[in-house]
Amino acid sequence: MDYLEGYERWLRTEKKASDNTLSSYLRDIRQFLTYLACVPLKPERVTRQDIEQYTKHLTSIGKSVSTVTRCVASLKSFYTYLLAENVVPVNPAKTVTPAKVERKLPQILTSKEVDLFLEQPECTDAKGYRDKAMLELLYATGIRVSELISLDLDNLNLSAGFLRCEGRGRERIIPLYSAAVHALREYVEKVRPQMVEQPREKALFVNVNGRRMSRQGFWKIIKQYQEKAGIKKDITPHTLRHSFAAHLLENGADLHSIQEMLGHADISSTQIYPQVVGKHLTDVYAKAHPLA
Question: What's the pLDDT tens digit per position in 194-210?
Fold first, then answer.
């Protein structure tokens, strides 16, 4: 029996999984089902020992520890679904513990690098105004790129200076600093009306064809301005998200407020940022102190 369709629907509706999570989980489960077909073994007959054997197989073909760890997480999710559907009596992956993987600290930009990066869009044409507004908004709020491109015009309240963001089944209100409000007002009032293809278009940010900006399109914009700024660090949309959180923490914000603005369901996801800030300050000290 093919369980993938039902599993995908469950991830979307019940778990409110992001597009990235959905893609990686489904890819992992497809690979697992292909492996089972070769064994052969039906998904509903799988035991914990079978899953442990599968993780050894992944390691033997050169998969990294982080990849195997993610696959185990995917299998736990998949069998949680099958358990909910009464296909299996227990979750065979529940107690499987993958090898520990050292969590790499995310890379952040310095305040000067952020300033340099945000200066790159030139407000001489529609694209420049739009790009300036997008980058300012991303750093002002720390939202995910999927949330950025999903924003509609009515998510903004520029007179009050805040953004209403809906992501992963939760709504949050995030304040905007004045430069971001200014860039957004310039774009929304002067530029966006000329860019949209249809007057009824709801999308806040649109491409040159007047339709909603895509993830790939925004990625190219980020890379374009990284190269233009001459910044050697690899900048992604998530780099600005991490920088937003780290800079807030450096300037006295508490972790729970940062958690709320980032939309983290669990504080443990936010607790990485004190480590990021600590490493950043250590690096600054090592470079700047004359006796270091």
Answer: 999 888 999 999 999 99
